Input
Amino acid sequence: MSDFRRQNRGNVDNNTKVNFTFDGKTYSGLKGDTVASALLASGVHLMGRSFKYHRPRGPVGAGFEEPNALVTVHRGKGRMTPNLRATTLEIYEGMDVRSQNKWPNLKFDIGGFNNIFSPLFPAGFYNKTFMWPKSFWDKVYEPFIRNAAGLGPAPKEVDPDVYGSCYGHCEVLIVGAGPSGLAAALAAAKKDQRVILVDENARLGGSLLSSGEVAIDGKPASEWLTKTIMTLEAAKNVRIMRRTSAFGYYHDNFVALAERITDHIPNAQIGQVREVMHRIHAGQVILAQGAIERPLVFNGNDRPGVMLASAAQSYMGRYGVAVGKEVIAFTSHDSVYGAVFDLADSNIRVGAIVDARASVSKDLLAMAQAKGIDVHVGSVISKTTGKTRINSAEVYNPATGQKTKIKCDALLMSGGWTPSLHLWSQSKGSIKWDVETGVYLPDVANENCVCIAACNGDFGVETALNAGSKAGGGRKKYDVTEAEWGSGEIFDQLPNYITPKKTKAFVDFQNDVTNKDIILAVQEGFKSIEHVKRYTTNGMATDQGKLSNLNALEIAAKALGKEAPKVGLTTFRPPYTPTSFGAFCGYRTDDLFEVTRKTTIDPWAEAQGAVFEPVGVWRRAWYFPKDGEDMHAAVARECKATRDSLGIFDASTLGKIEVVGPDAAKFMNIMYTNPWSKLAVGACRYGLMLGENGYIYDDGVVGRIAEDRFHVTTTTGGAPRVYRHMEDYLQTEFPELDVWLTSTTEQWSVIALNGPNARKLIESFVEDIDLSPEAFPHMAVREGKICSVPTRLFRVSFSGELGFEVNVPSHFGRQVWETLFEAGQKYDITPYGTETMHVLRAEKGFIIVGQDTDGTVTPQDAGMSWIVSKKKKDFVGKRSLQRTDLVAEGRKHLIGLLTDDPKVVLEEGAHIVADPTQSVPMDMLGHVTSSYWSESLGKSVAMALVKDGFNRMDDTLYIPMPGGVTHAAKVVKPVFYDPKGERLNVV
Amino acid sequence: MMLIHCPHCDEKRPEVEFAYAGEAHIVRPNAEQQQAMSDAKWSEFLFIRDNVRGEHCERWWHANGCNMFFNAVRNTVTDKFIKTYKIGQKRPTQAQIQKWKSAK
Amino acid sequence: MKFSARSLFANALSGHKNWPEQFPNKEPKKEYDAIIVGAGGHGLGAAYYLASKYGMTNIAVVEKGWLGGGNTGRNTTIIRSNYLFDESAGIYDHAVDLWDGLSQELNYNVMFSKRGVLMLAHNVHDVQSFTRHVHANRLNGVDNVWLTPEECQKKVPILDISPNRRYPVMGGAFQQRAGVARHDSVAWGYARAASKLGVDIIQNCKVIGIRRGADGAVEGVETEKGFIGAKKIGVSAAGNTSVVMEMAGLRFPLESYPLQALVSEPVKPIVPCVIMSNAVHAYISQSDKGELVIGAGTDQYTSYSQRGALHLVEHNIMAICEIFPVFKRMRMLRNWGGIVDVTPDRSPILGKTPVKGLYVNCGWGTGGFKATPGAGHLLAYTIAKDEPHPINAPFNLDRFVGGRLIDEAAAAAVAH
Output
């Protein structure tokens, strides 16, 4: 047992040793220790280096507010975690802990030279320099600054751990399981309410775990605590969540919690959930987060060994660890006396209590005297010494000028207490300045939420228990014997005889912000606290200003000669404590990041070795390579086979909407540019849909199944928005229409058969439908059976060949597909993917909305005036089409392009000019929207949107490419294959 | 996560079930009105919005729920819903909104 | 006092006691030649260029809060100009031209880092759309090149380019001249430079009305500090533009949405450039402090609350971890929201208004920071000359009437 460990104190297991390494050296702690407590027990205070000056640092706190003792934990490939707080990391056997931001090692860090030049790096220094010569910025200064960035190492391997995600509901959510939170939980549990009690620590109890002698209802606090936890654990309506940080408070009492599950477990297996994000909808939220002790701002306050008094008390109370052998306390608050007496009773020599206040209560002085502790009233610490650990402090009395050097190996400071208002402020509860205690306190709630006990500025165990009981809806009054909490005084920075130039008093430890930086910021005109924060970076470290914000505010206020509340307070932003990206992701990573929608035929395509492409939320077979074919070869073969004989294509992803009701045709008339009233039952029509702005929104073939029933198809990507668009108009603008809309995209499998042998193939499988060309012409739809299952059979073509689209209920899709494919062997049936579909349609000049149009194209621009009804009085987009700029000359038109060299396939997206010899910036006429090699035609074909294109027929235009290559192409009508449409009607 | 009261389901449901659908009570002119409108007037219908800082009448769609559109008055500074009501009900007057607020 | 390494050294010797105020806060005079409403980067930039380029020094910038406290201080600092349409490429490239050299011009290091912006393509439609951008940019003289997946990975070694991901990387468009800058410094730098030229910067002075004369022309602004006269008023109030324009009786084609962003804890350098992905819906860069700076699109509903929803942040982080699975153990340090004003075509409105003497610069949506010097300069030009510069002429209000929209987002339409 080291000199720093006290047997049988705290909640550690004295019989279970745990070995771990810190920077490669093995240390041993006890089960229940944190990295910080175990290192302190081994006499190690130096745990890190600061961000800017690389100053040696030890832990200043004992919890989540820690700014200094940040470490990296390694636990195998991909499981390296930087910037963890040693003060909250529970040790396990074999844990590999490393310090950060140092080179070559923590004791001797080259970066520490920054410290020597620190006078050159005051707040905002980077704004003032690194500007000349200009070229040096990109090449020298900026890369140098970037390389100095960061605290811990960046992860470079994929994290193999998994994360969870949960929702929860409760009547009462209590954040913080100190005395007030526990009392609130007890009271709420009795009322049969669902209670969730969360605490970020491994152990419940909060301040009870480290406070001195306290008796609750006549019994030691520890007994009350044990009994209370047992009661709560036994209650079925109470859920206790340890190691869980409530980090975000969102609208309507929605609170996000991050639970850490395996970081403290030895040999945590991959596959075990590391962290879980819980999202809680709470009826009421009780914030019992306590208060954080405030550091004092004095010269030398960052030396390892200088820490908060409450932290020293926690190390003793929770872990039985003495933070030093001879300590000095420096305070402006009464609460330190109790803490120091407690340490003195634990066999730590207390060299002195230095109290900055002009007077201290006689009782406290008498108690100190009784314990043999000197109290220096009205005095301050003016400097400290010690390289990587404090070894002395100088006590200075400004009134007498007296200086006394006192040896010490730890210095405990307390500048009073700051209530934790983070979540309260996130909930948009208002806060008010309390002049007496110099802190902000909760004022008016915005949600059903209360702040109780220390986080409401009410201190002491009895106060906490009673506040908790009341908040939980109970009436119990607790009777507590405890030391008086007392009061304190707020100091901005402490007086010193040493010239400011030679002092360093830190406000934000991690970011190395000193009082001088804040004063400089004010001097330079940064007068709002937000300006001060941004100019100095105070409060922007990983502790988010938990220790530094109020000290900075006091210093800035004094420099400005204003009251602190007049200077403002920086906004509290989520998260309360840094939260893993993994916890935000939950299980939604990799394949589960977003669902990949697959058709029922997709597994067949996969088995055939199809290459897939992501299209919107779907994946679609792109092409079906055979024997090492590349895409070009596969597509050429698929195209040829389809045009020559028969191709089969999975079109199931097409959006489908069933439009039903007596007013269905009327509704269709509103939604589409063309008329629907006279469309015969059993007939199909291509429909074009505009947005109200007049631009093409979507398209698709629509079949009239009955007088009152339309089978509408949409583009694959457009299905959800078209459905919404229709519902929106139906419900909001035309509620009088008796129409129902149902999205049926996933109800139908769609098998497209294209090619001269299409009819022959299905003939033997179709029942109840006369397939003869006379009875079933192009653009018709029939209901019947195919392969013995119900079908809506469309005779349509997106390829220019004789075509059928077989719609069958989804669950029959694969079966029908395989039956047809099997039977199609005699026609050399060829499965094709989206690329061939694109080539076939481009050869015919059929547009793809979203490729050949782009949200700025009107039907006229696309050469589709024929589909815009002149007779209909109204349809969505009609009025917009008449706007001046939409009927103006010189708009871009969709035309065809044939390259002079037929072998050249233009690049989609390439831009087009009339004069390729002009200099950059060029006058561009438009761009290539679709471009493919046409195996059937033996040449490339392209479509393009070109300014005034309809009036440039037969003109030669130019496509200048990188590297000086320019292609020439002739403007043609965008129909390249079978312009008369004869192939639709092969018999 | 805001909780939104759907007037059709008569239940408060989480925000993720709903899609915002823009300012409410912007009535689409009928065919005759459209033709009588100047481009400028028509563009007001298309594009001009109150965008108020304060009580805002707006539409929501219970997309992952009952599939109905409805109207709401929400304060755009606090994001608090004051009232939700069905399509077809008139735009509430300021007095009505104040009454709803004080009833809360 | 000129900022330089030398002055920094000299001041270090004197304990930094002699640095003057960078931008003294002034009380308003009775009247100015022009008033800018809104002391963000754009507004301060406009004031600076009015004074430096157009000789108008009797001007004031009035700000309801603290300067640079709106979107200037809340954005993810991305600067790029690889836009599709001539108009957009023109206005954003004008800004990039001014960014280059801004530190020297202002004698204030705004830390513009040309580390490049890589926009990832994840499907065939993205490839078509990005190559369209690359070609248009090339012929417009805007640098932007197409990279294969392998070239993308060479730029960003932690990028997973295996074809089996949910969103595979199929290539990317890379603009080298793009990058990031230190957002606050831009506001401070303009404020300091403008102050030096005699511009009054008046903070904590909310505009509560715009006074118009009998002829309809503006006469000045009513503020919390009283009436301030001016025949020219430039409004550059981002998310609050609708509120200010309403004071002049104007209704605008704008809606204000929350836009969230977040940073991680700082780590050593790992993300070498800005990486954006439209399909996955997220973007990321790493600050000079080491924080990963992450953002996405706006929340869905209009709001002035500067407070966003958790599920958007979740999705944003999921998206980043889809592109970079190595970041799952990183931790979110800070998450915040701003208010962005969005026009129907997501392009800005910069020019004159129907009210004489009233000029507006608004509607930058999620992309205003990158335009800061350009928007500032063009607003200054428009105010000084009472007519738009050719670069901002297309970004007028009339385009919503006739329908000549500049719709970059529509041009990147969703897939078939």
Remarks:
- The two ends of chain A are 97 Å apart (CA to CA).
- The longest strand of chain A covers residues 273-287.
